[in-house]
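Would you mind giving me a polypeptide sequence along with per-residue structure tokens?
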Amino acid sequence: MSEVIPSEKIKSVYARAQLLHSVPDVQSALVRMSQMIHDDLQDANPLMLCVLVGGVVLAGKLLTLLDFPMQVDYVHATRYRGKIVGSDIHWIATPRVPLENRTILLVDDILDQGITLTHVVDYCLKQGAKEVKTAVLVEKNIERDPLAIQRANYTGVNVPDNYVFGYGMDYKGYLRNAQGIFALAKEDEK
């Protein structure tokens, strides 16, 4: 679990970070994503699965923009657990709604290495999902493992290979609520 970090340290991290995408940039990306999702899934009666905790902001924002029948549930799978480097997948919660024969819209904060998203997609398919579409707010421009998901079906913005936070993405459990998407300063990557 995340450690408690003094507020002044978190404020310093925030002050040193570089803004990559402003609130208006992100809002435009959300509208564009929602239009694409609407076009593809409006008649599919999908189940939106939010990947906690990072995906909660994107899921909430998309819900207010998608005007068609759907159900919402969540899955909690993580590799970070309050750190800035991922490790093995850790399952905390699986969906309560049955996935069999459903179209799943899997919503997460970021496509980084693709490992977490790959595990969750595989889980959904093993539970009998008809299809799984992935939506991420941020896609990192990196080379991914060939066995991992390479691209999301719906992506808001792209970022370089930096540790990023804001709009659901965290720095050691903090700054998910940052107003924009920020790159962590090199000196804070420890």
